[in-house]
Each structure stands twice: as C-alpha cells, then as structure tokens.
Amino acid sequence: MTQHKRSEKFGIQDDKDLHISHPKSFNFYEKIGKEMEPYTKMSDNQLHERKCKTFSISL
Description:
Blueprint: H1 3-10, E1 16-20, H2 26-32, E2 34-42, E3 49-57
Antiparallel strand pairs: 1-3, 2-3
C-alpha cells in the first residue's frame, strides 16, 4: 500500500509547514512541531526586518 493510499484509508494528513513571524509564538510551535528554516522578511510598513521561522507540524 502506498503512503498516499494509507493516509487516505486511516484519515492521516501529511505534515504542514507554517511560516511564523511573531517571536512570542515561536516557543509554542517548537513544542508541537519541528523548526525547518529561519529567515527574515521586511515588515508590512517596510520599516523593520522581522525574524521568521518555518515549522513542520504533523496533523
């Protein structure tokens, strides 16, 4: 049985990647997932550089 068919049969979903840019929430996502890659991006008003992280969460 392939992974895809097994997932459908048992109702298991694949891992989901979440891109988080709020440092106060990093701790929460570190507890429920695995950090994949840190990166930076500019704030919406283009005044500040934001530290961001991508987390892989198994659902």
